[in-house]
C-alpha cells in the first residue's frame, strides 16, 4: 500500500509543480491563468504564488519518498486542492484556463483520496 501512497503523492506533487513556471514572468502567468497582469503588485503576488506552489510540489514529492511525512503531505495537498475548488465554485464565472486548473485539481483530489485511503489501510494493518 505504501507504494500507492507514494505514487499518488508524486502525481499530486507534479500537478503542484506545473504553476512554478509562472515565476518566469508576466507572459507565462497570463498563459497559465488567462488573466491580464498589468499591475506590478499583482505580478509580484502571482510570481510568489508560483514559488509557493513549487515548494508544495517539492514537499509532496519528498513526502512520497519519506513515509513519516506522507500523512502531512496528503493533508497539505488536500487543503491546497480543496481550498481552490471551493473558492472557484463559490465565486464562479472563471475562464477556460482556470477551468483547466479546476480539472487538474479534480484529478489531484482523486489521487489524494486514493492516497489517504491507502495510507489509512497501511496504518491499520500494521
Distance between the termini: 11 Å
Assembly state (oligomeric): single chain
Estimate nothing, just give the exact number of structural domains: 1
Percentage of β-strand residues:
under 5%
Helix content: over 70%
Largest sheet: none
> C-alpha Rg, in Å?
16 Å
Q: What is the global morphology? A: elongated
Q: Flag low-confidence runs.
A: none
* Overall number of strands: 0
Number of helices: 5
- SS-based structural class? mainly alpha
Can you write the helix and strand succession as a string? HHHHH
Mean pLDDT: 96
Could you please describe the fold and organization of this structure?
The structure is a single chain. The chain is mostly helical and 126 residues long. The protein has one domain. The protein is 81% helix and 0% strand. The protein contains 5 helices and no strands. Helix 1 (2-17) packs across helix 4 (70-91), helix 3 packs antiparallel against helix 4 (70-91) and helix 4 (70-91) runs antiparallel to helix 5. The longest helix is centred in the C-terminal third of the chain and has 30 residues, at 96-125. The mean pLDDT is 96.
Amino acid at each position: 500500500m505504501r507504494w500507492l501512497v507514494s505514487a499518488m503523492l508524486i502525481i499530486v506533487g507534479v500537478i503542484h509543480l506545473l504553476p512554478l513556471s509562472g515565476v518566469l514572468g508576466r507572459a507565462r502567468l497570463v498563459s497559465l491563468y488567462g488573466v491580464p497582469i498589468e499591475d506590478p503588485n499583482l505580478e509580484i503576488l502571482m510570481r510568489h504564488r508560483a514559488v509557493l506552489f513549487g515548494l508544495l510540489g517539492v514537499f509532496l514529492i519528498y513526502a512520497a519518498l519519506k513515509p513519516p511525512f506522507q500523512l502531512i503531505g496528503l493533508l497539505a495537498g488536500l487543503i491546497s486542492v480543496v481550498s481552490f475548488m471551493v473558492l472557484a465554485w463559490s465565486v464562479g464565472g472563471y475562464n477556460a484556463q482556470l477551468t483547466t486548473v479546476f480539472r487538474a485539481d479534480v484529478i489531484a483530489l482523486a489521487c489524494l483520496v486514493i492516497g489517504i485511503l491507502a495510507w489509512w489501510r497501511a496504518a491499520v494493518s500494521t
